[in-house]
Every structure is written in structure tokens, then in C-alpha cells.
Specification:
This protein is an alpha/beta fold and about 170 residues long. Helix content is about 45%, strand content about 15%. The protein has five helices and four strands. Helix 3 links the parallel strand 3 and strand 4. The site of riboflavin has 15 residues, from strand 3 and helix 3.
Length: about 170
Amino acid sequence: MSIKIITGNEKPLSQRRIGVIVSRYNEDITTLLLDNALEELRKQDIPDENIIIVKVAGSWEIPYAARALMQHGEVDGVVTLGCLIKGETSHYEIIASTTAGAIQKIAEDFDMPITFGVLTCFTKAQAMARANGHVANMGKEATKALLQALTIQEQIKKNIFSQTTTLEQ
Ligand code: RBF
């Protein structure tokens, strides 16, 4: 079996520097997202001194902070955390789609992984259940996805076809 498979499931390098952008809007939810993101980073041996947290006002402000961090912040990857809850007007739809679109654009523009941990829910109960692990644990999942993307990036950048051993099966 000589097919090489890259899954990103290997331990990420502990010297990686990770940016976490978290919005303050719906702070009870986003604090949970942040706590679970930090727990995952520590579980995966990323030292605290390699973590930078940027707190922004609302989800709308996340893309600018992400772009600035990637350009000037000496990070290797960024996790974005926020919580949008539908209100009585169309504001929610506008912020949700523009924020997601802007983060997607950043993912395309930079040679650096960025993950999407912005909850978009109809009620606060839905958001809570997706932040605290009852339905999902978005802070953890977005962080895991970033660390996985970083290991995938690392392995692809190595000359994988010149290696004699299979990376993972
Ligand atoms: N930011 C969020 O992160 N989640 C929200 O659910 C949210 N709802 C908002 C609803 C309204 C009516 C307004 C005006 C802003 C809301 N924001 C929300 C804040 C937004 O992301 C941003 O911080 C502000 O619009 C200032 O640029």
C-alpha cells in the first residue's frame, strides 16, 4: 500500500501560534465558545504564550480583526467565534451572510487556515445548546478544525511524494 493519505489527525506542532477572535455580542454564549476553544488548544499542547485572543464588539467586526491578525499578528492560523441570534428585523440575515462571506474571502486571500465558529441561530436556547456541547461544541470543533488544517498544510508543504513511508492509513 503506497498511497499516501493526509488526514491532519497527527498532533499539530506545539510551536504554532494561534489567533482566536471572539465577539462580545451575546457574551454568555461567546464566553463558552472561547472557553471550549482554549480547552482544546491546551489539550493539543499549544502553550498559552502561543495564543492571542482578540475581542471584538460583534460578529460584524470579526473579519477585519482576522485580516489584521493574519497580516500583522505573526499567527499561523485563526479561529473565529461569534454568536448571531435572529431578532425581529432582517439585521441577522445581513450580518450572518456578510460575515460568513467576508471570512470565506479571507480564507481564499491568505495562505493560512481560518475556521468558522460563528453560531447563527433562531433562539438563544439553540445557541447555548451548540456552545455547551448538548447539541454541538462549536468552540471546540472550530479549534479542532483549525489544528487539523494546520497539520494538513504542514504535510502538503513537505514533498510528500518523495517520502518512502505512508503518512497515515
Ligand atoms: N452581533 C452579533 O455578534 N450577534 C448578534 O446577534 C447581533 N445582533 C445585532 C442586532 C442589531 C439590530 C444590531 C444593530 C447589531 C447586532 N450585532 C450583533 C452587532 C454587530 O455585529 C456589530 O457589532 C454592530 O453592528 C456594530 O458594527
